[in-house]
Amino acid sequence: MFRTKLFRMVLVVTILAALLAVPMAAGAQMENGLTVAEGAVLSGTADITGYAAGDNFKRWDLHLFPGGDDSAKTWVASGTDQGDISVSLDTTQYADGDYTLSLRVVDATTGNYTEYLVPVTFANEGAAAETAPAEAAVDASTAMTDTVAMTDTVEAAAAPVAETAASVNGFADDSIAASGMVTVTGYADTAGFVKWQLDVLPAGVADDAIFLATGDEAGAFSYELDSTLYPDGDHQLRLRVVNNTGNYDEYFADVTINNSGAAAAETVAVEASAPVTETATTTATVEAPAAAAPAAAETAMTNGLNVEEGAVVSGTVDLTGYAAAPNFAKWDLFVLPGGDDSAKIWLDSGTDQGEFTVTVDTTQFPDGDHVLSLRVVDATTGNYSEYLVPFTIANTEAAPAA
């Protein structure tokens, strides 16, 4: 009898323990964060997986911090479904080096978020990447050998010149005329050196900075800039030299991009002049119809984008719109991934008011819901009026239909 009761007690305890173990296992799987190992070395296309959920869940955002710098973050993906997440990240779109993956889980009520960080390293060039610096080192050593030979002859003149030229932070050229591929060179070093970072500032606007590259080796650097990715006009390059306190020194170079060339400028001038000539002729011949012209002009002068709300786009699209104001400075066009203004991606800018057209390759962005933002900036205050249009990118679905 006693053994039977004891057996029953043991059996009940075992069953209860098994039942309790199931929720605990499920709870372990439901921890927010990324399943990427800290310090992982990634190359090619990597699948970034994780989990994002919460009692008042709104969305999750995945960002990439070049060199761990939050201020230079690059948006990767967003989602409004909580649970398991998986994002394919093409690491070849970024320079080799150290980065930090950031998963933000956003609260629906407050807009605040909980952040989960994982440091990783991109390494696509491998040994090939090390070859180029080695060749550069050979060239440098050759030059130093020549200098040594000269120093043997005239010691006083040679050494100071070489040291002074090599120790100046900044760009080798502070005014660059760019078309096609351009090699940008410079120097970066400081006490407690941690890294250098290179950004492009569209139209010289720091808030719209676009990350280009970073490096953790002090000294001379070189970067291949594809100027065709940016609109013609005056922009700036910014170099930040960061020390071990987190502070940095900044250096700037003006860059003027001109890829359209004189031929394109002549074509635009001819096309623009035609309507003016026709209008002048009509006004001179018939006065009454000419009076109706201002009404048509007023209709055309409505600021905003000529994109239908909720439009579904794929491939390469032409975005058109209108931007003008009494104290007009410029217009800026952004895409807000998932509608997130803090992750905005600059598309184009212009200093001529009136109609504009911007060609966008939507395959450079992930499928999903986004928002287009047109900002018309005031020349005196720097404030802007913003015009928003929600739209959807669907390239994955368009491919099978083709």
Summarize this, please?
Helices cover 28% and strands 43% of the residues. It is α+β, with helices and mostly antiparallel strands.
Protein model, in words:
This protein is of the alpha+beta class. The chain has 4 domains: 33-122, chitin-binding protein cbp21 (Coagulation Factor XIII, Chain A, domain 1); 126-257, Immunoglobulin-like, CATH 2.60.40.10; 260-292; 301-401, Coagulation Factor XIII, Chain A, domain 1 (Distorted Sandwich). It is built from 7 helices and 24 strands. The chain has helices spanning 2-29, 126-153, 155-166, 261-285, 287-291, 293-300, 395-401; strands at residues 33-34, 40-42, 45-52, 57-66, 74-79, 83-90, 97-107, 113-122, 170-171, 175-178, 181-188, 193-201, 210-215, 219-226, 233-243, 248-257, 304-305, 311-313, 316-323, 328-337, 345-350, 354-361, 368-378, 384-393. It has a 5-stranded mixed β-sheet with strand order 2-8-7-4-5, with no helix packed on it. A hairpin with a 7-residue loop joins strand 4 and strand 5 (74-79).
Kindly list the characteristics that best describe this protein.
single chain, 402 residues, alpha+beta, Coagulation Factor XIII, Chain A, domain 1, Immunoglobulin-like, 4 domains, 5-stranded mixed sheet, 7 helices, 24 strands, 28% helix
